[in-house]
Amino acid sequence: MSDKNTLFWTKQLVQQHARVAVAVELYTMPFYFTALASIKDTRHPYYEIIQSVCIEEMLHIQLAANLCLALDTFPCFAAPVYGHPVEFLKPYDPATGHHSLINAELGPLDETRLGMMLDIESPEPLLYGPSRHLTPEFPYNSIQELYDALLSGIEQVGEDSFAWSTIYQQVLWTMEQPFPQVIDRLETARRVVLAISRQGEGAYVPTPPQERLKLLEIAPLANIHMQTPASQTPVALSTTLDPEDYPLPAEDRLATSFSYPQWTRYSHFGRFLIIENDMKRQGYRPGSNHVSAFPEVYVGRPGATDHPDIQALQQAFAATLENMNQLWRGQVGTVMPMVRLLPLAQRCWRSGVTPVWS
Question: For 94-138, what is the HEC assignment?
Answer without folding.
Answer: CCCCCECCECCCCCCCCHHHHHHHHHHCCCCCCCCHHHCCCCCCC
